[in-house]
Structure formats: C-alpha cells, structure tokens
Design brief:
The protein is mainly β. It contains no helices and eight strands. A hairpin with a 7-residue loop joins strand 2 and strand 3.
Length: 129
C-alpha cells in the first residue's frame, strides 16, 4: 500500500538559492546508480516569475540536498528567455532526455503566452545540451 509521507513537502523554497526562494515544484525524477535525482522547477521571485530548473539528490527519496550551485537549466536562449518550466525526463541508452516548457515572453494574467516544448540532454547531469 502507498502512503503519503507525513513530512511533505520534501522540498521547500530555499532563501539561500536565488533561483528558488519563492517556490519549488513540478519536478522530473531520475534514478541513477542508486541515487534519486530530482529536477524541480524553481521561482526566485514572483514579480517577474522566471522559472529555472535545479538539481537535488537523495539516497532515500525523502531527504534531498542540492547537488549544484544554482539551476542546471535556465533562460539563455530566445525561446526560453522568460523561463524553463515543468521538466520531464526519460533515459534512452546512456543519455537522459529532458523536455520542458520554454517561455519566451513575460507571464501575463489571462494567458496569451507563447509557449514551446524544448529538449535538453545529458549523460552525467553536469553538462546539458
């Protein structure tokens, strides 16, 4: 039987992480060599609402620690200049593929945001293409 963990949520906003001070949610999850890798979407502040994707690890699935300083995926291209959101991951061969929502303009109330699906890949969770 599956039971909800009483200590939820397992990740909370972190005032030490500028990219995830306001919120963390909607993660992708991968298992590699007995380690659980969690890639949550983070928001640093609500005024501009720019999402980034971080990287946390755990051996037990309950206690997660940040692995990298800062996000592993974030705005940097025209198509995702206002955010990288809602990652999903799958492994094919020795490569992990991440799809995410790429936001190219500021989030507006009432919709109207041009969104795209983007693809990143990695073999080691350190370098992403």
């Amino acid at each position: 039987m599956i039971e909800k963990y009483k200590g939820n949520p397992i990740l909370r906003p972190d005032p030490k992480e500028s990219w995830a001070r306001a919120a963390v949610f909607n993660p992708a999850v991968c298992l590699k060599d007995g380690t659980i890798h969690l890639f949550p979407r983070g928001i640093g502040e609500y005024d501009h609402y720019i999402s980034r994707i971080g990287h946390y690890v755990s051996r037990d699935g309950i206690k997660f620690q940040p692995l990298n300083q800062g996000p592993v995926l974030g705005p940097g291209r025209e198509y995702d200049s206002w955010g990288c959101e809602d990652p999903r991951a799958t492994k094919i061969g020795d490569t992990y593929y991440f799809t995410y929502v790429a936001v190219s303009q500021p989030v507006k109330k009432g919709g109207g945001i041009p969104l795209a699906t983007a693809l990143a890949s990695t073999k080691d969770f350190k370098k992403f293409k």
